């Protein structure tokens, strides 16, 4: 890549000291511009060795620590003008607005920070943050290591702001970061109408992206209607977390059929888990009736128990991927509504008490978005494209006890965020159907076709399969495509 030289107004304060393999670096002052009536641009000049420019800002409110902020992005390459550039056109910025910000830069494999920064908006001209509002970053051959509450992989410590996990899917192999779940989901989850398997048509890496796509099993010549209704499925290498045989094999008979859809679900359980941190996943979500993406954090050891989400589950991003879906009460709940948050039970209505929503005018499967979750000892924040749309700051134990959830008695009384005070791992996949996420009496599509199964019916999966000629036609973009996954220490 050819890097253009920055203009003379962009002064790069850079010191390169070669002592063996050690390189020292000072982050330049961040340059602010206001090219349009709304928003701003913040940039630093490129120089050989720069690998990432992470910019985090909010308006008129200082940061307490390394929070996500309302305007944030991890920039992974310079633009054509030789700038590592963050740009937004969202906020209105009258003169006098204070932009509080912090910056993390990766240079030559090391991390550097600008912290406790602020810039005052003067829209009459492009302005570099004045020296009176910033502090000097010390140049050193050893990067600073600010304290962090984040731990990973069994309690290992790290430094604030450090990139702990990253996969940009440049390698075609899933190993060693990811393992496939191989199982039939039970009603401990959503009892979705799939089997999760390690099949090349359901999960693969292409063009530097992870693709997970559900497929109809009767597209395979070995799965005709007779086998689906009377045959047997045995999953070799089953990964049931409780060694439950019903997750590893199924005999079809009467109202029970074999899972009509095959899909994939992958996780980092054997490679990476963490407690407290910031997660970012850039992904394009699936589109099609009765599909939903799974971008989750799941408990590593199920310390508080396995049944009924006793150890919790965190949703980084979740949609009901129908292009049009209307609940029985008339509420639009299709792919234009993003949800994130946590589950502390599988029992309605408490199941959705801690899910937050963000509604857009376009389907979340139309383009890529960056889905984020910030997890601290005091709160959980939810973001999309740097915009914070949800905050959870409750006492989960108290809430659960008020609703007679027995698992709450096991949760750490000294931790208001329990059960979310243990290590969790990343889980990504695509589910279909099930008996929890799609409400009864909902209608889909322009013709308002009724949902073909009831969640309480013992033949729910069968009725779903019977309706396949209707819903399968909508599966024109059923894949979840993930560009990158990153986890940072707080």
Overview of the molecule:
One of its GO terms (molecular function) is hydrolase activity, hydrolyzing O-glycosyl compounds. Keywords: Glycoprotein, Immunity, Innate immunity, Signal. Pfam families: CBM39 (PF15886), Glyco_hydro_16 (PF00722). The protein is globular, with a radius of gyration of 24 Å. It folds into two domains: 31-121, Sandwich (Immunoglobulin-like); 152-489, Jelly Rolls. It is 5% helix and 34% strand. By secondary structure, it is mainly β.
- End-to-end Cα distance, whole Å, is 32 Å
Overall, the morphology is globular
Fraction of residues in helix: under 10%
Q: Count up the domains.
A: 2
Question: So, CATH architecture of the largest domain?
Answer: Sandwich
CATH class of the largest domain reads Mainly Beta
Radius of gyration over alpha carbons? 24 Å
Strand content: 25-35%
CATH fold-level name of the largest domain: Jelly Rolls
> Unreliable runs, pLDDT <50, ≥5 residues?
1-22, 125-141
Number of helices: 4
Question: Kindly state the mean pLDDT as a whole number?
Answer: 89
Structural class: mainly beta
Task: Give the biggest beta sheet.
Answer: 9 strands, antiparallel
The total beta strand count reads: 33
What are the salient characteristics of this protein?
single chain; about 500 residues; Immunoglobulin-like; Jelly Rolls; 2 domains; 33 strands; globular
């Amino acid at each position: 890549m050819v890097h253009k030289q920055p203009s003379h107004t962009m002064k790069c304060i850079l010191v390169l000291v070669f002592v063996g393999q050690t390189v020292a670096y000072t982050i330049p002052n961040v340059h602010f511009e206001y090219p349009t009536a709304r928003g701003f641009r913040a940039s630093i000049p490129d120089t050989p060795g720069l690998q990432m420019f992470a910019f985090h800002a909010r308006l008129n409110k200082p940061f307490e620590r390394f929070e996500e902020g309302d305007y944030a992005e991890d920039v992974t390459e310079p633009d054509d003008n030789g700038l590592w550039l963050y740009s937004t056109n969202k906020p209105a910025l009258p003169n006098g607005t204070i932009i509080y910000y912090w910056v993390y830069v990766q240079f030559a494999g090391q991390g550097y920070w600008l912290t406790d920064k602020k810039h005052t908006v003067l829209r009459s001209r492009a302005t570099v943050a004045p020296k009176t509002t910033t502090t000097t970053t010390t140049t050193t051959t050893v990067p600073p290591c600010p304290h962090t509450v984040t731990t990973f992989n069994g309690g290992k410590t790290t430094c604030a702001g450090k990139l702990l996990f990253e996969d940009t899917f440049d390698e075609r192999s899933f190993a060693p970061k990811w393992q496939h779940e191989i199982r039939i989901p039970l009603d401990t989850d959503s009892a979705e109408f799939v089997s999760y398997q390690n099949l090349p048509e359901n999960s693969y890496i292409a063009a530097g992206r992870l693709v997970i796509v559900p497929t109809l099993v009767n597209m395979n010549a070995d799965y005709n209607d007779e086998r689906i209704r009377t045959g047997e499925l045995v999953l070799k290498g089953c990964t049931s977390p409780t060694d439950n045989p019903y997750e590893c094999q199924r005999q079809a008979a009467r109202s029970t059929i074999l899972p009509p859809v095959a899909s994939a679900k992958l996780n980092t359980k054997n490679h990476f888990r963490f407690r407290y941190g910031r997660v970012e996943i850039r992904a394009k979500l699936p589109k099609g009736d009765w599909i939903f993406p799974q971008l989750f954090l799941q408990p590593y050891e199920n310390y508080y128990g396995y049944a009924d989400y006793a150890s919790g589950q965190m949703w980084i991003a979740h949609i009901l991927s129908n292009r049009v879906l209307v609940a029985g009460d008339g509420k639009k709940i299709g792919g234009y509504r993003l949800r994130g948050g946590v589950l502390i039970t599988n029992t309605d209505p408490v199941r959705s008490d801690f899910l937050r929503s963000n509604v857009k005018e376009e389907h979340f499967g139309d383009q890529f978005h960056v889905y984020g979750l910030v997890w601290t000892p005091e709160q959980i924040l939810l973001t999309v494209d740097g915009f914070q749309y949800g905050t959870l700051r409750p006492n989960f134990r108290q809430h659960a006890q008020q609703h007679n959830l027995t698992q709450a008695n096991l949760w750490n009384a000294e931790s208001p965020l329990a059960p979310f005070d243990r290590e969790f791992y990343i889980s990504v996949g695509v589910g279909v159907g099930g008996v929890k996420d799609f409400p009864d009496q909902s209608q889909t599509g322009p013709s308002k076709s009724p949902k073909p199964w009831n969640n309480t019916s013992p033949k729910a999966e069968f009725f779903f399969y019977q309706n396949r000629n209707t819903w399968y036609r909508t599966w024109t973009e059923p894949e979840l495509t993930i560009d990158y996954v990153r986890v940072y220490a707080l």
